[in-house]
C-alpha cells in the first residue's frame, strides 16, 4: 500500500522577484503615501534539487533531512521541488503509525492541534520536540553555495513537511523519544479499509 501522506518541499523564490531591503543608507522616498527605498535587494537562495533516499537517508539539496529511513518508506517525486513521502504496510488497519526517519541537528517549527479547532506553534531541534497532531513541520537546514553541508558561511534552506489526506485517511506528524519523525494515518472507523491502498 502506498500512502502519499507527507510532502517535503524545498522552498524557493522566483529569480525575477526583487525585495526591498530597508537600511539607513538607502534613504526613504515617500510617493503617494507609500514608502519606497532607493535600492533593491535581490534574494539569494539555493536551487532545489530532486530528493532521494540513499544509504538509509533522505537527502534534499545534498543535506540529510532524515536518517535511518526504514525500508517501507517510499518516495514519489511530484516535481523538481517537491515529492510525496509514503510508506507500505503489510496489513490492513484503520490506523497506522509509520516511522519516517530520525530528525536531529535542525532548527524546526511545528504547528500542532492541541484542541480540535485550535493550533499553536512549537520550536525545537530534534524529533522528540515534534508534538502529536502536527499539521505542518518546517526544518531549517544549512548548506554552502555548492550544496555541501561543510560550509564556511552556510546558507539556509527550508524543508516543509505537510501531511495530506489520502483516500479515506487523514494524517498528522509526530515525534518520539528516539528523535524519529512519524506520521499517523487514520480513518476514524473501527473497520480496516482493504480497498484503500494495497497494490
TrEMBL record:
<dbReference type="InterPro" id="IPR008811">
    <property type="entry name" value="Glycosyl_hydrolases_36"/>
</dbReference>
<dbReference type="Pfam" id="PF05691">
    <property type="entry name" value="Raffinose_syn"/>
</dbReference>
<keyword id="KW-0119">Carbohydrate metabolism</keyword>
<protein>
    <submittedName>
        <fullName>Uncharacterized protein</fullName>
    </submittedName>
</protein>
